[in-house]
Amino acid sequence: MKTSFVLFVALSSSMALSQSAAPKLGEAMAVDLHVARVDWHPMGKAIIYTKKEEDEKGIGVFVPGQRNGKIVMRVPFASSFDTTWLPGTDSAILTMYAPRSKGMDFQLVLVDADTGKASTLFAGTYAENHAPEVLIEPSPSLRHAIITFAENGKRHHRILSTDSNRLVDAVDLDKAEKLGAQGPNWMATGTAAYTNPSDSAHPPTTSSSLVASGSNAISTTSTATFTAIPPKAIPVLSDVPIVGTLFISRPGIAPGTMVYELNPSQANLFESHYQPWSEVYSGIKRLRQKNSHIVARLDQSVAEADSTWLKEDSGLPAYVAANASKVWISPRSKGVAYLIDGALFVRTIQ
Amino acid sequence: MKTKRLRVGISSLIALLAAGAMAQVQMGEAKPVDIHVTRVDWQPAGLALIYAKEVETGIAIGAFGPSRYEGKEMLMLSKDATFSPYWFEKQASVMLSTRQSAPEVGKDCQRVSLYLIDADTQKVNRLFDEVYRPGDEPKVIINNSPLLRHSIVTMRFKDGSRHFVLCQGNNSLVPCPDLDRPEAQKLSGPAWSVDGTAVYGDFPNLIAAKYRLEYRDQELKVDNANAAATKENLRELKLAQQIRSEAEDLVMSRAFALNMAPPAGTDVLELMPTNPVLRPVKFRGSFKPEPFTGPTLQTQNGHVVVQFERSNAEDNSLWLKLGVEKNSPASMVAVHASDAWLSPISNAIAYTIDGALFVRPIKK
User: Which of A139, B218, B310, B361 could make an SS bond with A190 (beta carbons 3.0 to 4.6 A apart)?
Assistant: First the structure.
């Protein structure tokens, strides 16, 4: 009996020791009211959220540490949008659709969460089901993206120039793609590289479809076929499924290979030696939301509520809030956003 | 022994059933109002509230009525600003007197402003705004009608007073030189008639007033119930107590004024609420505030231990108790609420969670 008790204590202690510490949460920051949806920056740097206003829908931004969220634009209730973050910055491109009586408005909007400003990159009105399909491929480090428009069976490219808040036609890229160039592969500098079509060192082998990030993203199928990524070409990205939604599989190119590099400000292609983008991710926590029931008492009165917790699979949980109706954990568990009676709060995770 | 235990058990059961059967406070859904809120002032009939929120540039004053979607910022004040709300008793409107430094004009200059905020429509009108050199700023005394959306504003300067009137149905202050006359003739007033109009007259035996003031921020309480104060000793009392100018204004405007009305039939000067002139009339009787007959509610904080797996966390909870006894039935308002403001007639409660302000209606 005594032995089993000692064994139990020892087991309990070892179990306790094997559990990692509970995540440490910062103070709750009140962000805005009547929030319906939150999109976290992939590195947890900021959020974009939608707010139900009386007559329309507000799109707001918040950077943890700022005083509160800020509505950067207002759109009709019926409009929908997808968010593509530019992960090296606090900016995102919103792909927006707003139905009209005949047709729909289509917009690309650049939102800067840090400054709380929104700039329209592209706007057009289209007949129903005729809006272009768009693929946005963000640079991993620059405020720059390659945007492929598929419209009436034709494809053309524009880039978000690093020089300005506008799109620049990428005529070189259209031509190169027609000649068989494949990409983008992201270079160490955050610029895009495309294979030289005449380079037989990268024969297309694997077919792949391109899907824009975001839950309701428009998808477009590329006509290009891609070589499989060599296991060591971008080893870290494949280990992080969340980030995988941002960087689409592309043909692997050996470092030092001659490629076409896309000038991120002028959109022209020039020859360059390929140096791949790489990023080391360490200590990524995978926190999950857990809920438990609260029974509160005051004298003889009893009331019930819910509590929200965050925990790693084998870790101790941390208490987040009571009566949170919705919870959004940032992709790398850098922060948690939650709603209490329509009010949005954010807590950073240390 | 067994019988005794059984009796105790039955009595406990009866007590528990009785407690369970006692009506609890019923509340509606929580409505979010605004964030970063630090202070709330309820309209006396719980029709609306105004609140102060911290913003990067200073203090924002917001307004909210139960029919509104959420609170709305009405005006911005500097960080050093002070403000005093003077609610109308029957309308969701408030006169807000503010003071803030005006460094753009000169060192130690003071900007004295007066706003009319309609919390229900979430609209604001600036009624008065002047900058004064140090020491020249007036004391602002606001007397609101207990019935009408009508107010008398007295600016007391070192060398005299200026009177203004917010006429019924208007959103601006009108100068009222007629009101200099009662002051020159040392007449008392305003007292408030049954119609909500202001009257002035010689009411020496009614100066002795029962007045009670509870200043909202709880920093200051003046409680001189049944004080037999004459005009002179009231002034001395005020000085002696060194109450703040805002509190003095409040004494003058609400409790004091309500309690000094003359008997019906007395010859008085009545201020026309729509046209700011005085006219001699027979007093039709004094305004009598309706006594509050609602349930006695009080807020109370509790402690919550939150558990998940083998982890514990602690939080606080806000409750509303029906009655004042220790075992009065209570309803939980919210977990993690830090500040709470129960409306004066207990028809709603405002509270903050991490700076976000919520309001829950209380069902009768």
Answer: A139
Whole-number pLDDT of residue A58:
97
Q: Looking at beta carbons, which residues of chain B come within 8 Å of A345?
A: 354, 356
Pick the closest to residue A274 from A260, A250, A262, A257 (CA basis).
Answer: A257
Predicted confidence at residue B326, as pLDDT, reads 79
Mean pLDDT of B225-245: 42
Among A32, A295, A300, most B C-beta atoms within 10 A, so best to mutate, is A300
Strands laid side by side in the B139-144 sheet: B139-144, B151-157, B160-166, B173-175
- Domain, as residue range, for A163: 132-284
As a whole number, the mean pLDDT across chain B is 82
Q: How many CB atoms lie within 10 A of CB B67?
A: 10
Low-confidence residues of chain A: pLDDT under 70: 1-19, 198-251, 280-284
In a domain, A223, yes or no: yes
Provide the ipTM: 0.80
| Torsion sign over Cα A279, A285, A290, A296 | negative
Q: How far apart are the C-alpha atoms of A102 and B290, rounded to whole Å?
A: 59
What string of DSSP letters covers B88-153? -SSSSEEEEEEEEE-TTT-TT-EEEEEEEEETTTTEEEEEEEEEE-TTTPPEEEEEE-SSSS-EEE
- Model confidence over A78-112: pLDDT tens digits? 999 999 999 999 999 999 999 988 899 999 999 99
Report the side by side order of strands in the sheet with A258-262.
A185-186, A192-194, A258-262, A269-273
A120 in a structural domain: no
DSSP string, B277-289: -EEEEE---B--P
Are B335 and A308 in contact by the 8 Å Cβ rule? The answer is no
Residue tagged 């200099």 (tokens) = B180
**What is the tens place of the pLDDT at every residue in B81-120?**
999 999 999 999 999 999 999 999 999 999 999 999 999 9
Buried b (16+ CB within 10 A) or exposed e, A127-166: eeeebbebbbbbbbbbbbbbbbbbeeeebbbbbbbbeeee
Q: What single-letter amino acid sits at B342?
A: L
pLDDT of residue A284: 66
Question: So what's the pLDDT on residue A280?
Answer: 67
> Got the DSSP string for A186-228?
EBTTS-EEE--TT-TTS---EE--EE-SSTT--EE--S-EEPP
pLDDT of residue A199: 61
Number of folded domains in chain A? 1
Domain assignments of chain B as residue spans, ordered by start: 67-282
Query: How near does any CA of chain A get to the CA of B119, in Å?
Result: 17
Inform me whether the C-beta atom of residue B300 falls under 8 Å from chain A C-beta atoms: yes
| Whether B311 and A54 lie within 8 Å, measured CB to CB | no
Residues of A in contact with B65 (CB under 8 A): none
**CB of B350 closer than 8 Å to CB of B42:** yes
A342 to chain B, any CB pair closer than 8 A? The answer is yes
Answer yes or no: is A60 within a domain: no
DSSP B242-271: T--HHHHHHIIIIIIHHT-PPPTT-EEEEE
The arrangement of strands across the sheet holding A326-329 comes to A29-33, A343-348, A335-340, A326-329
Q: From CA A171, how far away is CA A266, in angstroms rounded?
A: 10
Kindly state whether residue A200 falls inside one of the protein's structural domains. Answer: yes
Q: pLDDT above 90 covers what percent of chain A?
A: 66
